[in-house]
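Late entry, evening session. Most of the bench is empty. Finally got around to the prediction I had been postponing all week. Sequence below, unchanged from the version circulated by S.P.
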Amino acid sequence: MDRRNFLNSTAVLGGVAVAVPGLALAQTAPAVITRDAMRPQMAHGIQSGDPTSDGAVIWTRSDRPARLWLEWATTASFANATRVRGPYLMEDSDFTGRVDLTGLPAGQEIFYRVVLQDLHNERVLSEAMPGHLRLPAAAGSRAVRDVRFTWSGDTAGQGWGINEAWGGMKIYEQMRRVNPDFFLHSGDTIYADGPIQAQVKLPDGSIWNNLVTEEVSKVAETLNEYRGRYRYNLMDANVRRMAADVPQIWQWDDHEVCNNWSDAKDLSADKRYTEKNVPLLVARATKSFLEYAPLRRTADVESERVYRHLPQGPLLDLFVVDMRSYRGPNSHNLQTSETEESAFMGRPQIAWLLDGLKRSKSVWKVIAADMPISLQVADGQDGEGRNKWEAVANGDDGAPLGRELEMARLLREIKRAGIKNVVWLTADVHYTAAHYFDPAKAKFSDFSPFWEFVSGPLNAGSFGPNKTDATFGMQVVYQKAPQEQNTAPTAGLQFFGQVDIDAKSKAMTVTLKDLTGASLYAKTLAPQRA
């Protein structure tokens, strides 16, 4: 039985459902066969995430207090399955929970199924929910296979939610169909600041009909409203289907909290918010993100850390960065020296990233960024009438200033360390593009040339293209964006990227694709020798 038949098999969902933890709980009486409505439910599905050669995170949510159990095996028949007892799913985590599976066989297909045990009656068990993932090879493995993954960002933004009559968030199904090893969500996993209304009138007079819940009908302020945004996205069948079949790697950006949030964010004039305390909103948003993301948590020294290194075998190292949590306030971005005001990723994260890049033995080093480097992303004006900036670029085409100083230092150190084959992937701007950074055309030229690829949105308004900044010599090689801003998903300007690394040639091909899965632009990069 292959993985697709496995995931669609009603047999797996049926008779074995009550047997899985029943065997694990041999000390208790046999499981009770009861009506489905009486069993714990996993209405929001299951997810796997942060795959490495020997591990992955498995996530689910219950509708009541329950204990998570799962089995995993390397075959769909579950021969010689390993049974794992998971955590209690309780109110304090919105009934979410995860198991960080370790000791998995490198490079293998892993089939798993999740069962919930009702804590009000331990003999009442949910039906089993099946999932699948594919692990990368170990770093030093000689049995190397091709690598394929997808990336994009921006889900359910600008009021464009789940339109079931249109097919829901169907770009997720397009990504699942290309059979990737994993999906990288580049941020804006929700739009906490974007209310979703039942109907939106389109320019042609037709109506976009949204599925609506109470939590998404206004800006998120309470913890339950932030959680409700994640529950909402998981109401979409396409999202749940891909989450059960393809491991995900999440990062975040601003809309997980509110638009363009930084230390400079001021909601005092925004009448939509009754809670004006931005740090409190950040705390609630952070808790809900970490509850719902299938993300491997770090040690208690920084338990809310989002940036992390996920080795994907001899061909690929993935460095997920966080351009949101450690930045200084959004400002005019023209500081002449690196300070706390000009920080973007911050010195500790930059040091971590450089160290990881230097240590990497993989052919390709992908930096997963939540914002592009040299596209201008504005954030209004300050009290002196100067433009404020949300990303790295500052609209000044000269030598590095402000946040560009940190980026210049990073790029210079990558060159001086002789690190080759670094590629940047990002989203954020709601269109798709291929950018080449050429030191010969830059005002700051002490770096090695590299590529940055942009993709998105997944199910949100389409925008762009953004103005460019010449400091790092960025050349727009390809871009596709709408003519009108906040174009509805029905216009087809929803995008994802696909990365293929050939095991024999070690070449990386990046393909920008649209909502239908059609290829718009492709670039094949030959690896350079270190």
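Two things to note before I forget:
The first strand starts at residue 46 and ends at 52.
Residues 9-30 have pLDDT under 50 and may be disordered.
Will write this up properly tomorrow.
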